[in-house]
What does this fold into?
Amino acid sequence: MTTEETYIKSSNVTEIILESISEGVFTVDEKWRITSFNRAAEKITGVSRQEAIGKYCWDVFRSNMCERDCALRRTMKLKKSIIDTSTYIVNSQQRRIPVVVCTSLLKDKNGRILGGVETFRDMTLVEELKKELDARHQVGDMISASPNMKKIFSILPQVAESGSSVLIEGETGTGKELLARAIHDLSLRRKNRFVPINCAALPDTLLESELFGYKAGAFTDAKKDKTGLFLAAKGGSIFLDEIGEISPAFQVRLLRVLQDQVFRPLGAIKDEKTDMRIIAATNKNLQDLVNNGSFREDLFYRINVVCLSLPPLRERKEDIPLLIEHFIRKNNLLREKKINGFSQEALAILMSYDFPGNIRELENIVEHAFVLCREGQITPHCLPEKIVGLTRILETSLSVDGTIKAMEAKAIREALEHNHNNRLAAARELGMHKSTFFRKIKKLGIDLPKKNGRSKLK
Amino acid sequence: MVRHKKIAMAMWNDIISPVFDSTYHVLIVEIKDGKVISSHCKVLGPELPYSRALRLSKWGIQVLICGGISIEFARTMEIYGIEIIPFITGNVYRVLDAYLNNTLMSDGFFMPGFKGGRRRNRFRGGRRQE
It folds into this structure.
């Protein structure tokens, strides 16, 4: 077989392979016109080969990268391959198809550049599977894989259906309102309104008029009737956030509403019936407030039928990667960016941070990183200085601590050596009590020689 | 003849942008009695379908001429009463001329792979004159 025949045969083989693979492949010339288009490319884009050949690649591929961040353009400019860029295309049925793209230069046998080649993989199935996997860790808008949260997720449908009052405890930013919404959305009241109100944000008088409403003429500026939130939440749920902040006087009024299921708007002469579910939340320990007399016991027991405690983020750090992924997806969509995730170093910094602001703080950190990072991975440079600085201090203090320990171990070993392994003499040389000496040996994990030098010294 | 309309054309350099969802510029053209009375370019930021539809609606856009557009964006535009002429390709000014002359459909401005379908029925601006 001549060289030419071998070449023809091998090109046929290449063509057969290209036609049989599931990855879309197309090539372009230097003017960006498509010169070849395989079967998988036809299937993914919905454009036939006949229509695609000779057309500009952006008219056929229709990717969100085409305008500003074309991988093929970068390959042609930098003369190097680009691997695994995530993007999406709009196919001929107007569906967004998530794809992963690789680009390379197309050269002839003499090394002359003929154009570029782009391969792309349809990631629709992978994305769908990812969503299904996420669903296992998700209730409403809450995401968690932690055992404590999963316990809450597992009982949530029963809690929601019961219609009982719920008290949600948790630090700020742990997702109390999201949990309250999830309870409402899973309940039989989901077709009616979910009305959230922050009790700490308003003084007593305003809170009263917001919740109870008023009649025209009830006070100087009451020109017309105002419907209160208790009435607005009819058939639905009302979410009383930071309930621990309400005054004792208001607690009495609220208690009456909960007990008798009636309320009287300001200036009204008749009671109105309520039909709402109370979901209350607090970032304080209500039991403590009851114990010190600042929260009424009867009201506490009235709202505390079912109590759900949301753990802070520092106690469920396994959720950090999941939450990060969720926030990255959200921000990528909102800001049309292509951030893949956090680098190992950046993730390590976040994992070692305590998040006093909990999930809200984590969300803000991701948003901060999106402002500074354009694409690829988020590195420590894109994190707020406050967090990176804290980690540095921690690392420094850890290394100082380690150095001190190493020096102590060295001194103890040397003292033992000087004193022929006599522990008491070594302790005396180091100027410490024998019990301190033995405690340090245990703490530093120093192996003592079996032979004690006591007899020798004597 | 196009009487009085305000149209937006998704633009990339001087051609129709391949994907409206991620386009950064639109050319706003005001047309009266078949003639362009004003045109200017506006910058768009990355945004969700609802925000973009709201923005175009506030600018008084009645027709959007664009390249590829996802169903999510297309439906939202329609909710805001914006007529879409999708899957158009080519030089923006040639496309505009074709739109004004009602020859957009016949002059080969469609992207490869576009089969028409539902949205083609809504297409009114460039219908060929009998």
